[in-house]
């Protein structure tokens, strides 16, 4: 698309490797420096910065229109086909094709009655942030302590922390009190103990009820679901946005040209799902394996815990770290833009 340099001009951090710390020892998990791409790193960029970039670049196209603060509450249907959406204020917007990209709690998915398969996720996550000084390199890592797993994401001047716990355990943690929560974090990550006052109340701690699911059918006449609306991902690996963007590229490759010619595309919607279902099954299968074989045992670990065999193997043979790097950085069945730059009707 030729947008790489413009995106890199936005504020971001580069992550060239991912590590885990168990019992005070660091283990290499993923080495992105060998990826077969021009930019051999993972970009850490605030979501609003990325969305602003997408908005600004899309505004160059005459057919682009962005409606802010416009909540979609339902679908418009004619003779069993979706023909548009209805907004909270009652306004109706017609469309040749509605793309449901409204996240894991998708209103459009529910309104369309698309069948959902729940794969189950045994974890939930508390998100919070803790201030930190900037460092020359990005120091993102995963912290594993007895009964505690915390992903420490280096966002420059603060840590974005994901405190992982067994599903349904949020109220128990809250009932133990904020001081006990901060103490538990300090025991696991002692270097941030002095900064935990940033968690002043439970309002500073956001619950993510983790879901792992997928639609068994992503479409119906006039509508296609992609991204989290089609498949909610676990936060393991941080690959949800990768799959969502790849879904969008696959959809554009298959649908853009016929849509630009005013041709019906209902018969093509299944091709998008068929194209994307294989990589989705592979990645979700890997996430389930991590839940069962790494996170589960770690959350139940005794004080004498040791690093899982998989971590020890990755660290002992660094060349193996290229495998998780490729999965996280590139995914399975990479998508390349092949849709033509056609004029928008």
Describe this structure in words.
It is a single chain. Helix content is 32%, strand content 24%. With 345 residues, the protein is of the alpha+beta class. It folds into two domains: 4-119 and 211-329, 3-Layer(bba) Sandwich (FAD/NAD(P)-binding domain); 123-166 and 168-208, D-Amino Acid Oxidase, Chain A, domain 2, CATH 3.30.9. A hairpin with a 2-residue loop joins strand 2 (17-22) and strand 3 (25-31). Helix 4 (170-176) packs across helix 5 and helix 6 (240-260) runs antiparallel to helix 7 (269-299).
Topology diagram in text:
Elements: H1 4-8, E1 13-15, E2 17-22, E3 25-31, E4 42-44, H2 47-58, E5 72-78, E6 81-87, E7 92-94, E8 98-100, H3 107-112, E9 116-118, E10 123-131, E11 141-145, E12 148-154, E13 158-166, H4 170-176, H5 178-188, E14 206-208, E15 213-215, E16 219-220, E17 223-225, H6 240-260, H7 269-299, H8 309-316, H9 322-329
Parallel strand pairs: 2-11, 8-17
Antiparallel strand pairs: 1-4, 2-3, 5-6, 6-7, 9-15, 10-13, 10-14, 11-12, 12-13, 16-17
Helix pairs in contact: 4-5, 6-7
């Amino acid at each position: 698309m030729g947008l790489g340099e413009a995106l890199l001009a936005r504020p971001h951090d580069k992550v060239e490797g991912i590590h885990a710390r168990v019992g005070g020892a660091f283990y290499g998990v993923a080495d992105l420096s060998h990826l077969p791409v021009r930019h051999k790193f993972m970009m850490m960029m605030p979501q609003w910065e990325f969305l602003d970039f997408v908005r600004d670049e899309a505004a160059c196209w005459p057919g682009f229109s962005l409606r802010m603060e416009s909540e979609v509450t339902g679908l418009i249907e004619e003779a069993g086909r979706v023909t548009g959406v209805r907004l909270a204020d009652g306004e109706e917007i017609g469309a040749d094709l509605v793309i449901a990209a409204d996240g894991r709690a998708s209103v459009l998915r529910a309104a369309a009655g698309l069948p959902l398969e729940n794969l189950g996720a045994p974890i939930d996550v508390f998100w919070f942030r803790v201030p930190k000084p900037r460092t020359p390199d990005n120091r993102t890592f995963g912290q594993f302590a007895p009964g505690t797993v915390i992903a420490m994401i280096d966002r420059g001047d603060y840590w974005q922390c994901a405190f992982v716990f067994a599903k349904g355990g949020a109220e128990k943690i809250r009932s133990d009190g904020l001081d006990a929560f901060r103490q538990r974090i300090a025991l696991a990550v002692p270097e941030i103990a002095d900064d935990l006052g940033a968690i002043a109340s439970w309002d500073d701690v956001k619950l993510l009820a983790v879901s792992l699911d997928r639609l068994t059918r992503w479409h119906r006449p006039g509508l296609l679901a992609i991204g989290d609306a089609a498949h909610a991902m676990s936060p393991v690996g941080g690959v949800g946005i990768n799959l969502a963007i790849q879904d969008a590229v696959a959809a554009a490759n298959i649908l853009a040209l016929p849509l630009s010619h005013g041709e019906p595309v209902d018969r093509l919607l299944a091709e998008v799902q068929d194209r994307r279902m294989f990589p989705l099954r592979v990645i979700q299968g890997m996430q389930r394996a991590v839940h069962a074989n790494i996170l589960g045992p770690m959350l139940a670990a005794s004080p004498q815990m040791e690093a899982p065999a998989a971590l020890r193997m990755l660290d002992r043979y660094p060349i193996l770290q290229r495998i998780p790097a490729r999965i996280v950085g590139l995914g399975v069945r990479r998508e390349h833009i092949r849709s033509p730059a056609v004029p928008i009707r």
